[in-house]
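FAQ: What does the model actually see?

It sees only this:
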Amino acid sequence: MLFQFSFAQGQLSWQGYFSFNEIKDISESSTIVFAASENALFSKNAATNAVKTTTTVEGLSGQTISALYYSEAFKKTIVGYENGLMIIVNETDGSIITKVDIINKQLSASLKKINHLMEHDGILYVSCDFGIVQFNLTTSQFGDTYFIGDNGAEISVKQTTFFNGFIFAATSTGIRRADIANPNLNDYSQWAVVNTGSWSAISTLDTQLIAINSTGNIHRYNGVNFVAFLQLPQASVDMRAVNHNLFVTTSASVCIYNNQMILNQQIVNTQLPDINLTFSCATAVGDLLYIGTKEKGLFSAALSSAGNFENITPAGPARNNIFSIDVSPNVLWAVYGDYDTYYNPYDLDSYGISKFNNSKWLNIPYSEVYDAKSITRVIINPKNEKQVYASSFFSGLLRIEDDIPNFLYNEKNSGLESITYEGPTYIDVRINGTAFDKNGNLWITNSRIKNGLKVLKTDGQWQSYATSTILNNAEATSYSNIVIDKNSVKWISTSNDGVIAFSESGNVFKKITTGADTGNLPVTDVRSVALDTKNQLWIGTTKGLRVLSNVGNFQTDSQLKANPIIITEDNLAQELMYEQFITSIAVDGANNKWIGTADSGVFMVSQNGQETRYHFTINNSPLPSNTINDIKINSTTGEVFIVTNKGMISFKGIATGANEDLSNVYVYPNPVRPTYSGTVKVAGLIDKANIKITDIEGNLVYETTSEGGTIEWDTTAFGKYKVASGVYMIFISAQDGGETKVKKVMIIR
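And it is asked to produce this:
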């Protein structure tokens, strides 16, 4: 099928922020190198230096790539995935075709990985973990499947090559060959075993046929079988013949042989600017050598004198699996530490922190963050964008100023405390949710201790509050996030006791938990709390959504109670987000709610939750995964950043903060062309502006009041029918009538 994003918001509304650091495979033409990272592509033209990236926004899958091949003859880039998916990018018209034939095969899912792609006579031979599949590059259709194991069994084919009229396959149980002209190649008996054993690679180097077994022993074909002649120091991870040279890559070196198999040169990983990188593949375009790495992307140097390596990887975050972010009007910070569903951080990852602004990424490495592990949250000081605090769920609280980490608050030098249940010598300071109050004090959650709520005051003093007075077992409780309302009440999501709220006036704690009379939550495990512009608290749990109708009730109600949102679907009343594992809630400038889930993508619901305006998944949007780690919104631009475990994308939403006046009002798209199926947006509005849209004769077709800076019109007359072609007048007036504006929009049906 031809795969295009033809949904209403239009492709331009999306942007991808992917990491290109983990190179999975590379390919080349006579002038261009093509590289595949985890789930994105980039290419660099050696002559013009032009770099092009392709991500899920253009139509790639968010799944993990395992093979890449560029066909110069067909001007097509073919991408193979670990799950058997294949995507064809047509250079001529930019179209992207998704092929699911291998995924749909009645085979174990663990056998569908695509290992290698080899072109011969217009046919692509696709090596998979079950066998070989033919793919016709002219018709973009799959042909025969070859199960070439003993008695037609499934067999893992690592690589194929064409040599002297035969197709050779390196497999996990031997090298097999068959006459390429034989019409019965899907009969396993037509495939002869040349050598037994486990093989990782096979390539044709001019008049020689070279294969490598899984222990790294290079063999040469003598017309009968393969004879060993060279032992590599490690197993090979990639082998390819390009321009009469053979490139053999191991995790620590690249060996380049001429067509007589004489070693021209060897590059070891200590020669690159970042030493001790893990190599994944290597190739050349003209006199330029390219080496792909697992950690830092793609490096290039002159082939004739392989030194002075340059990193040519497109800018991006350090890795795709971002755990959470924070966004201010001008900057975005991302962190990669994590914990599992049970708040266990014990893979204790050490990835550093990333910052994005002015289209540039700054990646601060782990070596510069004072050994802070599992950094799970980051917060920008709203009064000072140059000051940032990062929460480590093991090591304390890291302060960053002017992009330089300069202090780690921990149990020795601050009011922060280590968990105690492992004994007095064990240090583990678990900081997660943080929030600034209006006075600039930083409120901090410190998990699994008695005094779980802390504040770092603007004068540098610390104060602690005893969450043990409200929680059933404070030393077993982990905290997710914290928000502060207009009355300075702190609302905190907990792992096992619902939501707790704290007011400094009187040092009062209150709790919303399960049970009809004790808070009405579906479960006690709350993952996200968010405040909207109407003083409602939205509560996301691992089993659904609840809303506290007014946070002001903290002062008056002895027991706070949250309620589900009941919606009507197909005339049946049901609960919004019923049983969903909610990971994140963000509120945009028009008071819409963006709700992220653990496995169902993102929902955007109206202010009161009665209408689901968008439900984005991997099937209908550029989301690379349905596992949402975080959502944050830039209040100035309305850009919604959606963080998944396989990459971050943003949606340029309609919900911007309100403007001061009507001087910047604009309408888009304008004109509305027949191919456009989305809504017309009127942006740059002030809050509570009255908008009337009429036809040229003055007949009213739509009327609304803005909430925030943008409204949408679905180009219907009050939702009944699509309006006809013509010019429509948009009359905008401030609530007090003091300011007015008139705009026009042309609709072409």
